[in-house]
Amino acid sequence: MGFMDKVRNGWKICELSLEVLRSNKKLIIFPMISCIALFIIISSFVFGFGYFNNWHFEQLNDPDHYIKRYSFTFLIYLISYTVVIFFNIALMHCVRLYFEDKEVSLSIGIKYSVSRLGYILSWALFASTVGLILKIIQDNVGKLGKILVGFLGIAWGVSTFFVVPILAYENKTPWNALKESISMMKKLWGESLTAGFSFGILQLCAVVVFLLVSFIVGLANIYLGIALFILGMVLTSSVFSALNSIFISAVYTKVSTDIDVKQFSATDVNQLFESKKK
């Protein structure tokens, strides 16, 4: 399959993900709760750290406190990965249930994520360690090293593209989950990157619209304008997080299972998935 065919499939999958979300709008609840939970937990953690250190956050930049600084960074990474993956797995499980024409609810998704908590925590520890290593390198090398770390970060993001559904449905160690994700990405890189790019363009357009509307409203009432912008950013982030999870779940389901994802039955896309299975 040529590059342009992969691009067309990526856009098609993006459109189909939008259709799935329109058909089941309750899926947006998961990223919204994730965003709120992450804000509350990290805010509480930062408040507690500040309280017990007399609010001297500047000491984190002191070379003599590098252990405290990197321990703080690691814990933030760990909390973030755990919360985000927990709710992403809940969402993806509900997406699969939706594909199977089964009941979808918040409680069902949360219960399933709880059942996968061991795999979620093991991956969070693994990913946080990788993130911390990259952070340490970034803080202690020159400009060339920072550029290298930037590329490594991009490679890490691409390599872990399919990790969440693998954690959700396969009993793999973090290392094996990473290898499986890389293997899937090698087969579906064109569709995956194109769909991701498509979501990015749409999200950017949504942000620009909210920014303009908020600016106009802010001319009359600055507080209302700020509130509208924050609400718009939360809503936009939640919608596109849900779309991305639907897309990843659909691709993983079609490639790795025998479940008939009817919403993704377009001939070109279906043939792509069948060829990957073979």
Automatic annotation (TrEMBL):
It comes from the Bacteria. The chain crosses the membrane at residues 27-52, 72-99, 120-138, 144-167, 188-216, 222-252. Keywords: Membrane, Transmembrane, Transmembrane helix. InterPro entries: DUF6159. It holds the Pfam family DUF6159. The keyword tRNA processing does not apply. This is Membrane domain of glycerophosphoryl diester phosphodiesterase. It comes from Arachidicoccus rhizosphaerae.
